[in-house]
Specification:
This protein is mainly alpha-helical. It has helices spanning 17-31, 33-36, 38-68, 72-78, 88-102, 107-133, 148-160, 166-193, 209-220, 225-243, 246-251, 262-275, 283-310, 329-332. It has a single domain, classed as Voltage-dependent anion channel (Glycosyltransferase, Alpha/alpha barrel). It is built from 14 helices and no strands. It starts with 16 loop residues before the first helix and ends with a helix.
Length: 333
């Protein structure tokens, strides 16, 4: 029974979500350096440092958990929702490498980290897609969380191009670009057939990440600015759509799914700030978005600290109750 497990047992791959969020914020503030000068650089470095510290703490906790509870990770990979977070580990490494390249950390370290993240991302994506092909995908597993194994591939060019690995960057970008619309169609189909429980409502923010990251990565690969504007349009639409779910999100108790909003908001802010170079009219919206994202990250961090102190985050997750529409006479045929 999970209710009798020690607190460490519940430190799973989903705990890498804060690393993704803080890395994204570091990259977003770096994009704002032209407007804010050295202050933006300092904030970017601070966010990168926070991300690195969280990553180290989570890796240490998960390593200790694996020693004390060898069956914990297999249970995570078998869980219909948590299995999607398996990609959060390699994605975090890729993002840390991207922050390292951006902030000019030691080149050998960042390139080694990028290569490790690349291998891990390919492994997780292969594992996930092979499960789909084998017919092991169930409605309960189809949530926006399954974007993470896909979005990670689109991230690769951000560090890959500066590290002079253009061919690999294009290859992984292609994987993400191919599966992004596939995942979108499947997730929307699941929502129509069997709406997700309210506690997973924050995960809808993840739909903002693919177009945001795709726009930035496309520019890194040499695409013209109109491609980024097109991606910004898609990301903006998804953000407006997700905004309609905010009242429901605010009513749900805080949990690790709440961190689903962090990286997508940061990625959208980064793309928006990048777009201001060609469209000065977006400068004010970019600043406002960056400020909102920073406040959201701070709020999520404080809520996480409170949850850790209270012990509410290192405990069994509540069982989701799926609302099933009663059959009507017409539906019975």
């Amino acid at each position: 029974m999970t209710k009798n497990r020690p607190a460490l047992y519940f430190v799973g791959p989903q705990w890498f979500a804060p690393v993704m969020g803080w890395c994204g914020l570091a990259l977003a503030w770096h994009r704002a350096e032209d407007g804010f000068g050295p202050a933006a650089r300092t904030l970017s470095e601070a966010c990168g440092a926070v991300a690195g510290l969280i990553f180290a703490a989570v890796v240490a906790a998960m390593a200790l958990r694996s020693v004390r509870n060898p069956g914990a990770l297999p249970e995570d990979l078998a869980h219909p929702v948590r299995q999607g977070f398996a990609a959060a580990f390699p994605v975090s490494i890729i993002l840390l490498a991207t922050v390292g390249v951006t902030l000019e950390w030691p080149a050998r370290v960042t390139e080694a980290a990028w290569a490790i993240g690349l291998l891990g991302q390919l492994t997780v994506t292969t594992w996930m897609v092979s499960r789909w092909v084998a017919g092991k995908l169930r409605w309960a597993s189809i949530t926006p969380v399954i974007y993470i194994p896909i979005v990670g591939n689109i991230l690769v060019p951000l560090a890959g191009v500066p590290l002079h690995h253009e061919a690999l960057s294009w290859a992984f970008f292609g994987i993400g670009a191919f599966f992004w619309p596939v995942v979108t169609a499947v997730v929307l189909a699941r929502q129509v057939q069997q709406p997700m429980p309210d506690r997973l409502a924050p995960s809808w923010f993840i739909t903002v990440a693919p177009p945001s990251v795709a726009g930035i990565s496309a520019l890194a690969l040499g695409a013209p600015m109109p491609v980024a504007f097109a991606a910004l349009g898609v990301a903006g639409l998804m953000l407006f759509v997700v905004a309609t779910r905010v009242p429901a999100i605010l009513k749900t108790p805080f949990g690790m799914p709440s961190w689903s909003a962090s990286f997508p908001l940061a990625a959208f802010s980064a793309l928006l700030m990048r777009a201001t170079a060609e469209a000065p009219g977006l400068h004010l919206p970019g600043i406002l978005m960056l400020a909102v994202t920073s406040l959201v990250l701070l709020g999520l961090t404080l809520a996480t600290i409170r949850g850790l102190r209270a012990g509410s985050l290192l405990a069994p997750e509540p069982v989701a109750v799926l609302a099933v529409e009663p059959a009507t006479d017409s539906s019975r045929g």
